[in-house]
Design brief:
Its cofactor is Mg(2+). It comes from Toxocara canis. The protein has 4 helices and 5 strands, in the order βαββαααββ. The two termini are about 40 Å apart. It folds into 2 domains: about 5-75, 60s Ribosomal Protein L30, Chain: A (2-Layer Sandwich), CATH 3.30.1330; about 80-120, Helix hairpin bin (Helix Hairpins, Orthogonal Bundle). It is about 35% helix and about 25% strand. By secondary structure, the protein is an alpha+beta fold. It is elongated, with a radius of gyration of 21 Å.
């Protein structure tokens, strides 16, 4: 887990896993659809049906019913930026570097890692003009209206 403001990004995909007896599949689907409609601004438009649900009728040992949400959000870039800033400060001071170089690592490996982290942090997700739809186990690409 990490501290990130999900409202500052867009969800690419999400999965909700429900556990417990007597969970209504119809109600789950209805609530999931309502959730996505109410919060459509937080989801990318170019991935159709990007919330998936799973129901396990075996309850956990701690609660009769439970739900777990897993989301893949572009807001993770904030975390990458924070890590990159912290890594830059540590490399500038060469803090703790000797512990790693004594074990055989080279300083260049850290510089390369920092470059990779910067690449992740600067990656943007432009709006796509396409939707992907799965029908009969095949993927169909649909060009969206640009208006």
């Amino acid at each position: 887990m990490c501290a990130v403001d999900a409202a500052r990004g867009k969800y690419l995909t999400a999965s909700v896993i429900f556990r417990g007896k007597h969970i209504s599949t119809a109600e789950i689907e209805e609530q999931t659809c309502a959730l996505q409609n109410r919060n459509s601004s937080y989801f990318v438009k170019w991935i159709d049906s990007n919330i998936k649900t799973t129901i396990c009728d075996v309850p956990s040992t701690h609660a009769p019913t439970s739900a777990t949400f897993l989301g893949n959000s572009t807001a993770i870039q904030e975390v990458f930026l924070r890590i990159s800033d912290q890594l830059t400060a540590m490399l500038r001071r060469k803090a703790f570097l000797h512990w790693f170089t004594q074990e055989g690592m080279e300083e260049m490996e850290f510089i390369e890692s920092q470059s990779n982290m910067d690449d992740l942090a600067s990656f943007t997700f432009p709006p796509s003009p396409f939707n992907f739809v799965i029908l009969n186990d095949s993927i169909h690409l649909i060009l969206c209206d640009s208006h």
